[in-house]
Amino acid sequence: MSASGLPFDDFRELLSNLPGPDTKALADARERDAQLTKPAGALGRLEEIAFWLAAWTGRKPAVTRPLVAIFAGNHGVTAKGVSPFPSSVTAQMVENFAAGGAAINQICVTHDLGLKIFDLALDLPTGDISEEAAMDERTCAATMAFGMEALAGGTDLLCIGEMGIGNTTIAAAIFYGLYGGSAADWVGPGTGSEGEVLARKIAAVEAAVALHKPHLNDPMEVLRRLGGREIAAMAGAILAARMERIPVLIDGYVATAAAAVLHAANPQALDHCLIAHVSAEPGHMAAIERLGKTPLLALGMRLGEGTGAALAAGIVKAAAQCHSGMATFAQAGVSAKD
Ligand SMILES: O=C(O)c1ccc[n+]([C@@H]2O[C@H](COP(=O)([O-])O)[C@@H](O)[C@H]2O)c1
Ligand SMILES: Cc1cc2nc[nH]c2cc1C
Question: Catalytic residues per the record (predicted)?
Answer without folding.
Answer: 305
